[in-house]
Write a structure and sequence with these properties.
Number of helices: 13
Biased composition (Polar residues): 316-333
Largest sheet: 5 strands, mixed
InterPro entries: Integrase_cat-core, RNaseH-like_sf, RNaseH_sf, Transpos_IS3, Transposase_IS3/IS150/IS904
Strand content: 5-15%
Number of strands: 7
CATH superfamily of the largest domain: Ribonuclease H-like superfamily/Ribonuclease H
Organism: Paludibaculum fermentans
Protein name: IS3 family transposase
Region (Disordered): 310-333
Distance between the termini: 48 Å
């Protein structure tokens, strides 16, 4: 069929021949020039530079006179001297084929930071801490709130409000907090971002003396410290949080009330609506059992309201991750 179409196309044209024989024109053209298979080697354009001319251009570009100048500058200089070898764009192509178009300056290469993958399966195993600014009474005035949070229970184990951000103040906060929580060597890991106080030598030396492992977030990755960031959002979205604090005493009074509410009254959605204090101090089993008793009584009164099964109280979390590693099953989905 294709031979007949080809022969007829020479007499009446491609389109009439394909219509007469019922051959799609796309198929006709594809059979003439198959898409698959070896392709002919590209030929040099007739108006392109010869090998001798390309060598001459490359010699000029690499000469001591022009090796530190751009092709545009070289072309303009030669043109002013009454010599034309080729266009500046052709000079770039010649240089590129010879491997001479790389960045000449040394480029800064950022180190590869490993993503922190931290696990807490109980209180006082993993702490997260950060510092946030609270607006003061006038523009450009701030108070600095230091907060240390237990990642497993979300319990605020220590906080401090100061006029400035200081490594010595952070060191003092950790000394007091570790003493109150009875932290033993090799028990605790402390995670933070890469702020100046977090990476300071006084804090690093103190944690090393106490046998505490410290880790840091990757630069500019707030998701590596999510629990502290979330806690600050809860703070600043509380009803009654002012636009500015009149003085540091006002800020401290607000912080006292807030952290008492957060630890003792706030039912945290990330820990099965338990309060951080209940989970931190090991009271979760009793609270969950009490909730289950209430649910069982409700089920006995109105079982028809629970269609699938009897209600069950949500269990307490057994582990909490910062950047939980992906499993092979997750990767295949």
């Amino acid at each position: 069929m294709m031979e007949a179409a080809t022969a007829l196309a020479l007499q009446v044209g491609t389109r009439p021949a394909c219509v007469a024989l019922g051959v799609p024109r796309a198929t006709f053209y594809r059979r003439l020039a198959p898409f698959y298979g070896p392709r002919p080697a590209p030929t040099r354009p007739a108006r392109g530079l010869s090998d001798v001319e390309r060598e001459t251009v490359l010699a000029q570009l690499n000469s001591p006179r022009f090796r530190d100048q751009s092709p545009a500058e070289v072309a303009a200089t030669l043109l002013d001297e009454g010599q034309y070898l080729c266009s500046s764009r052709t000079m770039y192509r010649v240089l590129d084929e010879a491997g001479g178009t790389r960045e000449r300056r040394d480029q800064l290469s950022h180190p590869t930071y490993q993503k922190p993958e931290l696990l807490a399966s109980g209180p006082n195993e993993l702490w997260s801490w950060n510092i946030t600014k609270l607006l003061g009474p006038a523009k450009w005035t701030y108070f600095y709130l230091y907060v240390v949070l237990d990642v497993f229970s979300r319990y605020v184990v220590g906080w401090m409000l100061a006029h400035r951000e200081s490594a010595q103040l952070a060191k003092q906060l950790f000394e007091d907090t570790c003493r109150k929580q009875g932290i033993q060597p090799e028990q605790l890991t402390v995670h933070a971002d890469r702020g100046s106080s977090m990476t300071s030598k006084p804090v690093a030396f103190l944690l090393s003396d106490l046998g505490i492992t410290k880790t840091h977030s990757r630069p500019h990755v707030s998701n590596d410290n999510p629990y502290s960031e979330s806690q600050f959002r809860t703070l600043k979205y509380r009803p009654g949080f002012p636009d500015r604090f009149g003085c540091i005493q006002d800020a401290r009074a607000f912080a006292v009330d807030f952290f008492h509410w957060y630890n003792e009254e706030h039912h945290h959605s990330g820990i099965s609506l338990l309060t951080p204090s209940v989970l931190h101090h090991g009271e979760a089993p009793q609270v969950i059992a009490s909730r289950q008793t209430v649910l069982d009584a409700a089920y006995l009164v109105h079982p028809e309201r629970f269609v699938k099964q009897a209600p069950k109280a949500n269990p307490a979390p057994s582990q909490v991750w910062i950047n939980k590693p992906s499993t092979s099953e997750d990767n295949t989905q």
